[in-house]
Amino acid sequence: MLDWLKHINKEYPEFWNDYLAKFSKKSKRYVILATDATGNSTEKDVITFISAFAVEDDAILIKDSFETILLQYRFLHDNHLSNEYIIESRLLKLSEPEALKTFIEYLGNGILVGHQIQSSVAMINATLERLDCGKLRNEALDIDIMHRKLNEITDDKELSLDELTDFYKIQSTPANSTTERAYTIALLFLKLKFKLGLK
Amino acid sequence: MNIIAEQIADFLKNYAPFNQLRSDELAEIANNVRVISLEKKQTLFKINDALHDSFYVVASGVVNISVIADAEESIINKCHEGTIFGLRPFFAKNKYKMTAKAREESLVYAIPIAVFKPLLANNSEVLNFLLESFASNLPEDRSTQGNLASDGVFYTEKQSEVQFFQTLAYNTTPLLATADSTAQEVAQLMAESLKNNVIIFEKNGPIGIVTHADLASKIATGRYPVTIPVSNIMSSPVVTVLENVSLAEAQLLMLKNNVTHLCVTVDGTDKSVIKGVISEHDLIAAQASNPGVLIKEVKRSLSSNELKEIRSRLTNLIQSSIQKNIPLTHITNIASEINFAILKRAVELSILDLGSPPARYAWLSIGSQGRKEQLLLTDQDSILVFEDVPQEKYIEVKDYFLKLGKKTTATLEKIGYELCPHGHMGSNMMWCKSLTDWIKQYNNWMNAPRENQDNLSSIFFDYELVIGEQKIETAINNIVFENAYNNTLFFDFLGNDALRKNSPLSFFKKFIVEEEGIHKDKFDIKSRALMPLIDSARLFTLSHDIKGINNTYTRFKQLAIVDPKHAEIFLNCAEAYLFLTRIRTLEGLKNENSGQYINLEELSKNDREKLKNSLIPMKELEELIKDSFQLTQFS
């Protein structure tokens, strides 16, 4: 709670200050986020993949997307894991600080949307802290919560992404990659947004 | 390019015209796609929306493309996966001419025009593909295009539909010759009868045709002597069609076979009896009586005689349209457009004669014309409103407009619209007034209907601008709706007016027919069936504050939407109204009058039953009126 006190005299990296400056305006842009991490612990685990699509005016903008692999040399090394398959793929690969920096620049003041978004946000926040930055300021929407609100479901059972896609009869290939997951979430979000009458 | 863009590119690759693009171009497009999710019945764009900056491809689901004529929505095209639609922004700068609505949950890809256009320059096939599809104005043409939903010119005009069902008048006594006659004999035959073709026949049907073109290219060039048997120069085989071929079909066959003549035979093959020959000229002639042409001619005509001629062609058009079972709503739309054009032209002709008006004015049609329901020649009802002018000029201005009114009504009478027996016309001193006076008049009518009963008629509440200032009509509209709000007294009057008409069926469900006069034993469909429906529709629209809809059928449709509780009654009434109008129009066409009195004996048993059934919803409507409005003061 006294977070801001801790940081009050801290020098933020420049990109973070730029990011904070963007919040003077309200955004109409939604950023649909899906991340992959090595586990659930914010302490021990690290993010390995970030994918995002922007939604503006009720349309998914394919061009306005973000996709990057995070090269976690240290983590892999510490855990004796191979990174061959990552090196092989032709996707954009960045180191953790670089990746986070470009992501923050991409994200701007957009409204975050995801499936179990809080865990993604927590993960990102933990990473940001390692980079001497503050926490994400973005509003975050969770499609699972939106779904429950729409259908007035009160029990606490969380639905998986697959269950949601089945529920809304979204035809898509089983979301294997993080990017496909982000896209599926985006489709779900468009539907939920319409049904909930969000502007 | 991420994996989703790749998937989109893979999807597009399967469909024309994307299959003609290079993979880097495709990648560029896929990268710029916007994905839009449509819920069932969600609209993507509708008629008169400003153009979007992209066109669309259906990724999944079905999107219906439709045009809306009044409350009727007719679907032109169902776009399935891979279909391109919404191409209009490519070629036109105005607004959308149709509505795109998802039939089920659908995904569409929006491809920005700005991205796609540069590719067109390098890919002439793609450009041609789009141009052809957009410009094609034959519905049959389009179905061969596969995956492209054209929003070209053809369907943008609802009147064209009539045209395409129109049958052709053609030469039923074609020139005939046998295969062994000489070219000279055939040419002689053509010259004598001033025809440009001869059908060559054998005993079991036509085998070929000789036209001017054949003679010119084969004889006049000296390739063959004039004495040669005609079988050497005829075009063979001749394209044959069935007897009742439609204009569109004939056009298509000529284009397809690249010929100028079609031979009509009994069963449509070249092995049966010859019935006639259709030439290109017949097609042109058929098009001349299409609604679009009629309107153009109205605009150009200079005398009441010309207008009269056009009006009689309109009657023919209505008759043939009704016989072809074209929806009555369409016919009414077309007919009223042409009627309005005639009215407008009549006023313009008077102005040409009298000089330009000294003040702004509005010529409003009232009654059936105002409701745009005039199919047959009925009487004319109109009012004239002119803007307020200074006192000293008033007499002069009113004088001008009275003259204008008189002249116009006289012209209309010549055309065939009878004068209104009650004098509800712009030529009448009482109904040619300044705006202030009209406002006063409406105020009086609506707030004290009892005192003004003698000159108040419900037809004054159906009005439509024919020519003049739109603002004046709006002003009157405002006054009417302002006064109508919660005006129980006025609704009471209208309600009684609607119910006063005599009921159509007796207690024993028998038609009540006229008991005396020249129409003895006939059923008065106008005052016993149509008027109550028209009056009730007006009453309900006024009380529900529905503006701008004058047509009875559309009123009922709209009421069903506004008042869902009684939707069924309203919808039944709408259908009943259509059927009754149809009966009346047929009767009118048969007897060349207004069709007010129906001879029940002449109706088929089926029609009689249907007529009886369509009178039943009126009973429910009557109950509804009694429930909704307290009809105490005037009964």
From TrEMBL, chain A:
InterPro entries: RNaseH-like_sf, RNaseH_sf
Protein name stated in the entry: DNA polymerase III subunit epsilon
Organism: Flavobacterium palustre
TrEMBL record, chain B:
Pfam family, one: DUF294
CBS domain location: 170-226, 234-297
Cyclic nucleotide-binding domain: residues covered: 17-137
Keywords of this entry: CBS domain
InterPro entries given in the database record: CBS_dom, CBS_dom_sf, cNMP-bd_dom, cNMP-bd_dom_sf, Diverse_CBS-Domain, DUF294_put_nucleoTrafse_sb-bd, GlnD_Uridyltrans_N, RmlC-like_jellyroll
Protein name from the UniProt record: Nucleotidyltransferase
Organism encoding this protein: Flavobacterium palustre
